[in-house]
């Protein structure tokens, strides 16, 4: 490979870092994770995945101190994604695969895995309206809790014209179907020793296996802030992957809208 080609290859590499489950109940953990990520990745702040009413017990309220902090994070450059409405899965899953995904891939938090198109659209739209009213900016997109989407959620994403969505293996445009990045997201699970051990092993393997990948995604969660092992693994992962791979924004993956205008959104009613 020529020197110019190598330079272009390196410049095209991206590290996308996100902090999940941003909600008042996890405020101290989110502060610590943003600081930790910043120490490894420099001045570009991570993307923030915001839950408007976490588990129906931790709402983000207009005029609150947390709402003001959310706006400051946005003003400082964090991309803000809608991350469900409550993050809690209350659906009765009929299909065998969905029952397995709900039971094995998350602990009752796959909110959008079993929702109908209508309910998914209502919750997505209400979350977007709340966050945009607080930040004064368009959200970057929608990412389902636990990265789990059912048919209703996929249909609702198209209805609401979100520019970006993400799951375990890709980042895509829901309206066009264009895939902007592929590859597994590196993340950690801390709710049991077994899951922690498996996620530590996976992170160790992936940060080496993906070192030449064009786009790498790293996602951290509030529970990680309470685990020394997870924090050490996060630090090591970001240290390895940030070599020759500058932190980037999700928006860098997708071309801007042609006219820069906001899409027209259907009226929504805040879910109960």
TrEMBL record:
SUPFAM superfamilies cross-referenced by the UniProt entry: Glycoside hydrolase/deacetylase (SSF88713)
Q: Which Gene3D superfamilies match?
A: Glycoside hydrolase/deacetylase
Q: Which top-rank group of organisms is this from?
A: Bacteria
User: In its UniProt record, which GO terms are filed under biological process?
Assistant: carbohydrate metabolic process
Q: List the Pfam families hit by this protein, alphabetically.
A: DUF2334
- InterPro entries per the UniProt record, alphabetical: DUF2334, Glyco_hydro/deAcase_b/a-brl
Please state what the protein is called: DUF2334 domain-containing protein
Task: Give the originating organism.
Answer: Flavisphingopyxis soli
């Amino acid at each position: 490979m020529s020197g110019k080609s190598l330079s272009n290859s390196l410049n095209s590499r991206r590290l996308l870092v996100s902090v999940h489950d941003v909600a008042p109940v996890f405020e101290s953990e989110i502060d610590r994770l943003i600081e930790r990520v910043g120490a490894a990745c420099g001045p570009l702040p991570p993307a923030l995945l915001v839950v408007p009413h976490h588990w129906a017990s931790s709402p983000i309220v207009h005029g609150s101190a947390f709402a003001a902090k959310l706006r400051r994070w946005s003003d400082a450059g964090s991309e803000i994604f809608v991350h469900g409405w409550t993050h809690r899965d209350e659906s009765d899953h009929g299909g065998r695969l969905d029952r397995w995904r709900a039971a094995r891939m998350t602990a009752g938090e796959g909110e959008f895995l079993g929702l109908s198109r209508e309910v998914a659209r209502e919750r997505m739209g209400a979350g977007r309206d709340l966050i945009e009213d607080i930040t004064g900016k368009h959200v970057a997109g929608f990412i389902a809790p636990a990265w789990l989407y059912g048919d209703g959620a996929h249909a609702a994403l198209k209805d609401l014209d979100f520019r970006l969505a993400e799951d375990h293996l890709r980042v895509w445009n829901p309206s066009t179907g264009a895939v902007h990045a592929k590859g597994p997201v590196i993340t950690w699970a801390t709710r049991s020793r077994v899951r922690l051990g498996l996620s530590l092993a996976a992170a160790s393997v992936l940060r080496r296996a993906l070192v030449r990948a064009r786009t790498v995604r790293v996602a951290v969660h509030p529970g990680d802030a309470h685990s020394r092992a997870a924090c050490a693994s996060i630090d090591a992962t970001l240290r390895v992957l940030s070599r020759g791979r500058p932190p980037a924004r999700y928006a860098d993956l997708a071309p801007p809208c042609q006219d820069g205008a906001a899409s027209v959104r259907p009226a929504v009613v805040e879910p109960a």
